[in-house]
Amino acid sequence: MDLAIHLDRTSVIPLYQQLTEKIRLGVLEGTFQPNQKLPSSRSLAKSLMISRSTVTQSYEQLESEGYLETRRGSGTYVCQQIPERWLNSKTIAPVTTKTKQKSCLSHFGNNLLTIDRLKSEPDDEISFRYGNPAIEYFPIQQWRKLLTRHCDRSPKLNYAADAAGYFPLRQEIANYLKRSRGVRCTPEQVIMVNGSQQALDLIARLLLDAEDWVATEEPSYLGARDCFLGQFANIQPIPVNCEGLDVAILSNCQQQFKLVYVTPSHQFPTGVTMSLSQRIALLQWAEKTGTLIIEDDYDSEYRYESQPIPALQGMDRTDLVIYLGTFSKVLFPSLRMGYMVVPPSWIAVMTKAKWLCDRFCPILEQYALTDWIAEGHFTRHIRRMRQLYDSRRQALIQALKYYFGERVTILGTNAGIHVMVKIVTNLSDEQAIAKAAAAGIGIISARKYYLQPQRQGEFIFGYAQLEIPQIELGIRKLAPILKN
Question: What is the 3-state secondary structure (H, E, C) of the chain?
Answer without folding.
Answer: CCCCCCCCCCCCCCHHHHHHHHHHHHHHHCCCCCCCEECCHHHHHHHHCCCHHHHHHHHHHHHHCCCEEEECCCEEEECCCCCHHHHCCCCCCCCCCHHHHHHHCCHHHHHHHCCCCCCCCCCCCEECCCCCCCHHHCCHHHHHHHHHHHHCCCCCCCCCCCCCCCHHHHHHHHHHHHHHHCCCCCHHHEEEECCHHHHHHHHHHHHCCCCCEEEEEECCCHHHHHHHHHCCCEEEEEEEECCEECHHHHHHCCCCEEEEEECCCCCCCCCCCCCHHHHHHHHHHHHHHCCEEEEECCCCCCECCCCCCCCHHHHCCCCCEEEEEECCCCCCHHHCCEEEECCHHHHHHHHHHHHHHHCCCCHHHHHHHHHHHHCCHHHHHHHHHHHHHHHHHHHHHHHHHHHHHHHEEEECCCECCEEEEEECCCCCHHHHHHHHHHCCEECEECHHHCCCCCCCCEEEEECCCCCHHHHHHHHHHHHHHCCC
